[in-house]
Amino acid sequence: MRRTIRRKDYDMKLAMRNEVPVELTWDLTSIYKTEEDLRSDMEKVKALSIEMEKKYKGKLNTPEMIDACLDDLRESTRLISLTYQYCELAASVDYYDSHIQDLNGKAMRLASEVDSRLSFISGEIMEQPEETLKQAISIATANKLYLKDILRRKPHYLQPQTEQVLAALAPTIQAPYQIYNLTKLADMKFDSFTVNGQEYPLGYSLFEDNYEYEADAEVRHAAFDAFSKKLRQYENTTAAAYNTQVQTEKTLADVRGFDSVFDSLLFGQKVTRELYDRQINLITEKLAPHMRKYAKLLQKIHGLEKMTFADLKIAVDPQYDPKVTIEDSKDYILKGLSILGGEYGEMIQTAYRDRWVDFAKNQGKSTGGFCSSPYGVNSFILLSWNDRMADVFTLAHELGHAGHFKACNSAQSIFDTDVSTYMVEAPSTMNELIMAHYLLKTSEDKRFRRWVLSCMISNTYYHNFVTHLMEAAYQRDVYKIVDAGGSVDASTLSGIMRETLEKFWGDAVEINEGAELTWMRQPHYYMGLYSYTYSAGLTIATQACRRIEREGQPAVEDWKKVLAAGGTVDPIEFARMAGVDITTDQPLLDTIAYIGEIIDEICKLTEELE
């Protein structure tokens, strides 16, 4: 079927949230049936924190008292997780609903209040003699990792009063992210644009989910220009929010005694600067020639006079991208991921049946996709369904997160489910690869094979190894400026982004006006050093998936153990359990070579089909 987005697809603007069919929305009642239930837990956790302060403050000087306190802290953490994530999820699908936004603000302030009140716990535990801590670790069961992590963080712990103030200031510290989202999802009102007398509505999700893939070059370029024009109107506000974010991170790194903001942000990921820099340096250098070749192929197939940044997401075969309904996706995903076993399949069935997924397209909804997995309940997946095979890969990706946290939440204490972001994208990207490998086995048709391979490049690898990697390279340059005592504004940020894109794409792609504003489009910059972890996770996933292809069930069983391990292992051990050694360059080099092989085969199949 023809991929070109037809006029009728744009006849209606995005609906308001209360106008979308309920079956397309997620069901948050699995967390709280009513708002009264939510408020009850908010009062409960507040009362619990007050009780804990009275019961334990100044008394955490024996292994038994420490363990008992941490048992209560696990319950407090669980309740904060449920109340906070419920409100955040509700807010993410409707930034125009003032009541929900107010409720979300209350949940954030409550979490900050409780964290501040209970900040004495880690401080008092850190002050105990090493022998007391060792005894506490020896008698603990669900609290062992928490205690070990306290010992790890001890060199960077501040005075108790300072830690309490920082915890109380959490909503203020997190404000740049809230400002960014409100600017992007509530304040930006996009004007329609016209091509050949036809008017087209425009919005964030319409652009990112549809127009970027539009086969009609005139429509695609006009949409890009109109979208960029609107972004530029908000560049200074967005830059100010981001500069506040990075300056805050630098200040916190300094006061905690880290040598750099990089060391501070990587500390929580439990990885070295070497692993971080390797991802950016090797991909920028080694992958660029392969992706330039892919860009040239797109230019040739589409007969473009020149290849621009606005053309990079068009399909290799726009006339061979069948429409996929939500119901169709269920069949694809169940069959594609069947190799992971019956229990995994049951989770997928439940996700569809019990409305874990928010498929709806509406105004004020967060763009992109994510999966949130509150401890003790099911996961919640956000995306906007556009009847494309790309949506199937996105849903499989997010179900990878759901499967990961279902496994580790069931197997581990709530303290042990805080997975390093370095490895958190491995289970999700693994699902994308498994889906693609399944599809390749369903047909011998060359055109079909080229289509699947191009989906792997344009969806899985482009998204994680190019889009997010360019973000990471840009972000590293920003932090270098901040680490040296500087600050950034809109002009600086756009200049860094343009230079990053030009370095990667060379003369194969023209970085047209508006491309430099790409830094305004992603929320990842407000989540520390997150962007590079997509390629890190996909590197592990690629090697583990190829092992499954070679070895079958034994490799699958190892992968299940990896999923259940949660935060009890660091990234190096996580990868080792999956059969991958990330202490060397080889896994990443092998993955880049594999991407090159896929692109070479796409080129070869294109020649044969012509």
Terminus-to-terminus distance:
19 Å
- Count of individual beta strands: 5
Strand content: under 5%
Q: What is the typical, i.e. mean, pLDDT?
A: 93
- Rounded Rg: 24 Å
Identify the strand order in the major beta sheet.
Answer: 3-5-4
Please tell me the CATH architecture of the domain at 31-173 by its name.
Answer: Up-down Bundle
Order of helices and strands: HHHHHHHHHEEHHHHHHHEEEHHHHHHHHH
Which residues form runs of ≥5 with pLDDT under 50? 1-12
What is the fourth-level CATH superfamily of the domain at 31-173?
Answer: Oligopeptidase f, N-terminal domain
Instruction: Write down the CATH class of the domain at 31-173.
Output: Mainly Alpha
**Treating each run of at least 4 consecutive H or I residues as one helix, how many helices?**
25
Taking the sheet with the most strands, its summary is: 3 strands, mixed
Describe the global form.
Answer: globular
CATH topology descriptor of the domain at 31-173: Butyryl-CoA Dehydrogenase, subunit A, domain 3
Based on secondary structure, the structural category is mainly alpha
Give the proportion of residues in helices. 55-70%
Question: What do you see in this structure?
Answer:
There is one protein chain. By secondary structure, the chain is mostly helical. It has a domain of 143 residues: Oligopeptidase f, N-terminal domain (Butyryl-CoA Dehydrogenase, subunit A, domain 3). 63% of the residues lie in helices and 2% in strands. The protein is built from 25 helices and five strands. The chain has a three-stranded mixed beta sheet with strand order 3-5-4, covered by helices on one side. A two-stranded antiparallel ribbon has the order 1-2. α9 packs antiparallel against α12, α15 crosses α17 and α20 packs across α21. It is globular. The protein starts with 34 loop residues before the first helix and ends with a helix.
